[in-house]
Write a structure and sequence with these properties.
- By secondary structure, the protein is α+β, with helices and mostly antiparallel strands.
- It has one domain: PPM-type phosphatase domain (Phosphatase 2c, domain 1).
- It is about 20% helix and about 30% strand.
- It has six helices and 16 strands.
- Helix 2 runs antiparallel to helix 3.
- Its EC number is 3.1.3.16.
């Protein structure tokens, strides 16, 4: 079991890692990242001032003057939910560890902005870990460079940047793999927390699961160690055997000026070309011409008091734990830590 602590240092969040205890029942290579959405609010909140028409719209009256100035109608504070995260890994019975992960509570160090940015991801390598290592080093940077919002949240722009970041990462990875004769690939599941918005992306069979309280007790702070939690799967697995992916692999489509086809086939064993189970991944250069792609599914949602934590894990983890079992396991670990 390997464990490494990550702490954030940005003004927007004070992140202290909590250890996610592992299990030795896993029979396959496995990695997981658990990001906890805490109910502690940041001390430093951004302020917006509402003013009457006599006050210029581009000036914000300081707090000390606001109370005495009748021109200020009110003040609204936007608070950010604190984020804590940690990672655990276990290679199981395999000879080498092919999975990598990223725990980055302060994800805007290279591109500062007023919008809080945290990033967490799992890269599940197969046939080696070169592709997983490459994606670990380059994906977040490519997503930032592709236009991930850093000042004002724009969900559409965020999703577009993530998809473009995946494309750029895979394109450069394929160039490196051709030069180095790499044969391996890696699936991915990633989370970006931008302000109070969570953006989730996945390509392959790595999965993200949200633990959400089903309590109906008002809108106050909910104790994540006592509340009854529901497991919500946030991602869709990409396997060649699934109808939607099989159709995409086999379907012809028009790319001007000719009609082309992915040219792939799904064998009787449910694998692409009878060899690889997943239909989306970074790398795997020999399968890119027969339907394997790195385009992710991307979804988003807003953080609420009912959202407690997200578990990111490779297929090795989910081969042992069901979503509900994983949420219960993490909740029990949080109970132990709180005592």
């Amino acid at each position: 079991m390997a464990h490494q602590k990550r702490e954030g240092s940005s003004a927007d969040d004070d992140c202290t890692s909590k250890r996610l205890k592992g299990t030795d029942t896993a029979s396959e290579t496995g990695g997981s990242v658990e990001a906890s959405v805490s109910q502690q609010m940041d001390a430093e909140a951004r302020r917006t001032c509402q003013k009457e028409s006599k006050v210029p719209s581009d000036k914000c009256i300081p707090d000390g003057e606001a109370a005495a100035n009748s021109q200020v109608l009110g003040e609204q504070k936007m608070v950010l939910t604190a984020v804590e995260a940690d990672a655990a890994e276990d290679k199981g019975c395999r000879h080498t560890m092919e999975d990598t992960w990223v725990v980055l509570p302060d994800g805007d160090a290279e591109s500062p902005g007023s919008l809080r940015c945290a990033h967490f991801s799992i890269y599940d390598g197969h046939g080696g870990r070169l592709a997983a290592d490459y994606a670990q080093k380059h994906l977040h940077q490519n997503v930032i460079a592709a236009g991930l919002p850093r000042e004002l949240m724009d969900v559409k722009a965020a999703k577009k940047a993530v998809i473009e970041g995946f494309r750029r990462t895979d394109e450069s990875l394929l160039q490196e793999s051709t030069k180095g004769n790499w044969q391996d690939g890696a699936t991915a599941v990633c989370v970006w927390i931008l302000g109070q918005t969570v953006v989730v992306a996945n390509a392959g069979d790595a999965k993200a699961v949200l633990a959400r309280s089903i309590s109906t007790e008002g809108e106050g702070v909910v104790d994540e160690t006592k509340s009854q939690l529901k497991a919500i799967v946030l991602t869709r697995e990409h396997k060649a055997i699934f109808p939607q992916e099989r159709s995409r692999i086999q379907k012809s489509h028009f790319v001007p000026p000719v009609m082309v086809s992915a040219g792939g086939s799904v064998g009787s064993n449910g694998r692409l070309q009878g060899r690889i189970e997943v239909s989306r991944a970074f790398g795997d250069r020999h399968f890119k011409k027969v339907g394997l792609i790195a385009t992710p599914d991307v979804h988003s949602f807003e953080v609420t008091k009912k959202n407690h934590f997200i578990i990111l894990g490779c297929d090795g983890l989910w081969g042992v734990f069901g979503p509900g079992d994983a949420v219960e396991f993490v909740q029990n670990q949080l109970k132990v830590l709180s005592q």
